[in-house]
Write a structure and sequence with these properties.
The chain has 439 residues and is an all-alpha fold. The protein has helices at 3-6, 15-39, 44-53, 56-60, 74-95, 101-130, 133-171, 176-205, 210-217, 221-235, 241-251, 253-259, 261-267, 279-308, 310-322, 326-334, 339-368, 374-415, 417-425, 433-438. Helix 2 packs parallel to helix 7 (133-171), helix 2 (15-39) runs antiparallel to helix 8 and helix 7 (133-171) runs antiparallel to helix 14. It has two domains: 8-219, Growth Hormone, Chain: A; 221-428, MFS general substrate transporter like domains (Growth Hormone, Chain: A). It is globular and about 60 Å long. The protein is built from 20 helices and no strands.
Length: 439
Amino acid sequence: MTETQKQKYSPFTWVPSAYFAMGMPFVVLNMVCVLMFSGLGIDDSKIAFWTSIIMFPWTIKFLWSPFLEIFKTKKFFVVVTQLISGVGFGLVALALHLDHFFAISIAILAVIALSGATHDIALDGLYMAELSKTDQAKFIGWQGAFYNIAKLIATGGLVYIAGAIKDHFVSRGYTTEEAYLPAWTIIMLSCCAILVVLSLWHRIVLPSSAEQAEGEHQKSMSAIGGELVEMIKDFFTKKHIWLYISFIILYRLGEGFVMKIVPLFLKADRAAGGLGLSEQQIGLYYGSFGAAAFVLGSLLAGYYIAHRGLKKSLFSLVCIFNIPFLIYTYFAWVQPESILLIGTGLALEYFGYGFGFVGLTLFMMQQVAPGKHQMAHYAFASGIMNLSVMITGMPSGFLSDALGYKMFFTVIMIAVIPVFIMTKFLPFTYPDNAAKSDN
């Protein structure tokens, strides 16, 4: 394929839409399905456990990433996994009407998770292979923006629409419980339609270098396996690696525990200790205030770290990331009714999440990833980070049920204390940019 053929379509035609397609399955599985199953009458403990465990493919995706190099092209995997995920959501819509809908839906969602994780590998690989260094830098902002737009549309728009559809059916004589079934069926079918259409679009516009693909096919399975073993061995022999792994796990410990419980807490009846919000209210807070605060926090954090350097900034980043969880502790104990207060609190928590998450991302890039297998080691560190969130999310529903919302959020705030202590004594293997400029 010539360079002219390779650049037949501008990256503007596929980078935004492809990264939107990357974000949607992850967010729907991780957050939207929590509210769906809650509305359909599933216990909080079951929801938190199973919607956490199905996220496992995003933790271990580095294990099969090298093997994608020897089969087909990256474009093939992007297009096919979008189609599989789309059809999967359509099957979930049908499964909701069956007697054992929860077990069947979880099984289908697990397949979507595997497809989504594979899609992430292939799309990131295609992005790096098909774009020049200049274009990679040029479109990185579009990449991140549309990934987060998927989050906004899923947690905001889709949840809001589900609530509106539910209210429509209630006004026509359905009970609240009965109205949730057609509402979430329509939402899952919408996810199906979006991803199937995107798959068909990307089949046309995605670039694919034939010469590159042929070169990749020359690698043998054993050679790829050997590279994988070497990469893993090299990772676990890095300086301070076990301290860094502990830090990565502790950094997101609090988030992992509260991630599944917060939407359930917001939706739970006030008599049960929740805030009694509707899906429309939750969708509005997440999709507008929360999304805007997250983007603002992420942007400001970049300038903050660039000015001070990561080493000087890390403790404050940990504080900004974890201390806002106190908002949920306050909400659980006081149960405020003010819409303005609740919306402001959620926006502050999302701002802290966006601001503080940048610190962990840069720490993995600058202290964990550098070396011979930089890209693979960053993926490995990201997998460990996701594993932390998954492991803490699995028992969060059981803990919440056992302790109640008040004590649950209080205990989580105590559990994050170790990361504050660790941050003060954490060694840096490599100097950050600010330290370099001072020398």
